[in-house]
């Protein structure tokens, strides 16, 4: 049963992903990029994308004050286990008034900044590698699951829709995500949820003193 689920997930990724262009291996673009946190959801998404597109995929984690050092180390460990390249991109959501205000839309501003950064980094890498300005639109992925979509506080899902982010786990519950992650041997399959530091603030407390150190 789990094998069937994995096959279904791989089919989703293959059908929605950016296909491999007919280029020499040293010129292949990284055009399948997973928004990565090191949590079980994004880890499973990264593992699936990497299995389908091993030469044209990467995981990308946004580094800001809201990311703890423990979370960063965990993300590095899991990415290394999967084998997927990990990009560590600095994001500046803390410069946005809507994020700092912490009035219920901070996650939206955070994800908007993250997805925009992922697009920019992938496109820049492609242009630098090709030494010209031919456009390349990467496909972005996240680890959103079926339970997340029922949570009205997850306003970051709006940003995902705006950026056409692919959510290959959208048909799986959180428990099913863990089951598949365990089946695939991911080391964090049973890890407890670890929300970002900003989300631990009470509603209305400005996100000005968040530190990931």
Automatic annotation (TrEMBL):
GO terms for molecular function: sulfurtransferase activity. CDD domains: LarE-like. InterPro entries: LarE, Ni-pincer_cofactor_biosynth, Rossmann-like_a/b/a_fold. Signal peptide: none annotated. PANTHER family: EXSB FAMILY PROTEIN, NAD_GMP SYNTHASE DOMAIN-CONTAINING PROTEIN. This is NAD/GMP synthase domain-containing protein. It comes from Phytophthora nicotianae.
